[in-house]
Amino acid sequence: MATKDVKDDTAAAATSTGKLFTRAEVAKHTDTSQDTWIIIHNNVYNVTPFLNEHPGGEEVLLEQNGRDATEPFEDIGHSTDARQMMESYKIGELVEEDRTKDGGKKGKPWSSGNESPSRCCIVM
Ligand code: HEM
């Protein structure tokens, strides 16, 4: 009799690098030129070797060290090249509890899209 042994590994496959960090852990790595970690879209990057190479300059990265830089990163409108480049600096991801649900993008409070108009005018 063959017994089916189907393993459900979906939880284990949740991260590509396997390493998980809390925001508090990332915040400890702020030793400027020695140890600069940033969070972008719930992923953790060690950008120390990239500081000198960043086309936008090291200043902007240093300003974000230990922090979530998702918003400034997206505000710049980085290219797909930049997005591919950052993969090489990825060292892990945030633990489930510290993640932002939408991948780090903050929703605009004035455009939820789901609301019906609260007021309407009748012109007589
Ligand atoms: C690992 C993370 C990052 C990578 C790999 C990266 C890569 C790049 C690249 C390749 C460019 C050239 C333009 C482009 O291709 O889009 C660029 C420009 C720039 N980046 Fe980043 N970047 C990173 C994070 C950040 C962060 C966190 C900030 C802001 C806090 C930032 C601010 C800028 C600025 C201001 C420019 C110059 C834009 C311009 O001159 O028009 N970058 N970055």
Automatic annotation (TrEMBL):
It holds the Pfam family Cyt-b5. Residues 93-124 are annotated as: Disordered. Keywords: Electron transport, Endoplasmic reticulum, Heme, Iron, Membrane, Metal-binding, Microsome, Transmembrane, Transport. SUPFAM superfamilies: Cytochrome b5-like heme/steroid binding domain. One of its GO terms (molecular function) is metal ion binding. It is a single-pass membrane protein. The keyword Secreted does not apply. The keyword Membrane applies. Its main location: endoplasmic reticulum. It is found in: Endoplasmic reticulum membrane; Microsome membrane. InterPro entries: Cyt_B5-like_heme/steroid-bd (IPR001199), Cyt_B5-like_heme/steroid_sf (IPR036400), Cyt_B5_heme-BS (IPR018506), Cytochrome_b5 (IPR050668). GO terms for cellular component: endoplasmic reticulum membrane. Residues 18-95 form the Cytochrome b5 heme-binding domain. Belongs to the cytochrome b5 family. This is Cytochrome b5. It comes from Temnothorax curvispinosus. The gene is LOC112457094.
